[in-house]
Amino acid sequence: MTREERSIALLKICEPTNGYHLAFSGGKDSQVLYHLCKNANIKFTAYFCRTSVDPPEIISFIKENYKDVIILNPKFTMYQLILRNKLLPTKLMKFCCRYLKEYAGEGELVLTGIRSAESVKRSLRPEIELDHEKLKVFLHPIKKWSDAQIWKYLKIHKIKVNELYSQGLNRIGCIGCPCSTRTDIIKSFQKYPQHRIAYINTIKKLMQDGKYSDFENAEDVFEWWISDKSKKLYMQNKNQMQINLK
């Protein structure tokens, strides 16, 4: 049985009577999942949760190519959430996902495009899991697919992907997402400088309330935040550079 056949079989076996809730991101993995659902001829509704820091190319891509995807608007912007939580999101503190994406699908069987190849943490998650807090069940039908299998499926079925991939981004999603690679984060802020300014302005407000007082200024906090380094290591490297310049 091929990866595609196995995923389709899993989708058919687990299909709920009221249909699936498909968490759609507009990225390559959720595209493959969407088309697998179509090929499986199962009932599902796809939803895209806006976060306020979405690249505009993602929104336009979905509206043009996936007209049946329902776009949900957030109750708070990313910057409002940062101020409410009094800190920047990190890989370990992803409060933004909870409020901007994971709220959707409560009480439903939710399909996601997460894969083991993306991270060690995701590789440890089972294909079917229960979220007791949000009262929903997750099914990850393409969890075992490799990057090569994803791209091969898209090529064979002649599925158009977002232009952002051809611009060198490995992962498309929220601008500044701490789960992206440093390279992707830097490229995103170079492409969307207005969001760099918005994050720095938000950091300034946090510093006015006493947060990040051990940094020189908001720009310094921002550079640490996108560095993918611990605060201790970032400070050590910065101090060493200052010593070398003397």
Features:
elongated; 12 helices; 246 residues; 6 strands; Rossmann fold; alpha/beta; six-stranded mixed β-sheet
Total number of domains: 2
Structural class: alpha/beta
CATH homologous superfamily of the largest domain, by name?
HUPs
N-to-C order of helices and strands:
HEHEHEHHEHEEHHHHHH
Q: Please indicate the percent range of residues in DSSP E strands (runs of 2 or more).
A: 5-15%
How far apart the termini lie comes to: 65 Å
Examine the secondary-structure arrangement and name the CATH architecture of the largest domain.
3-Layer(aba) Sandwich
Estimated radius of gyration: 20 Å
Q: Spans of 5+ residues with little confidence (pLDDT < 50)?
A: none
CATH fold description of the largest domain:
Rossmann fold
| DSSP strand tally | 6
Main sheet: strand order: 3-2-1-4-6-5
> Looking at the structure, what is the overall shape?
elongated
> Average pLDDT, to the nearest integer?
93
Q: Which CATH top level class of the largest domain fits?
A: Alpha Beta
Query: Main beta sheet, described?
Result: 6 strands, mixed
* Helix coverage percent: 40-55%
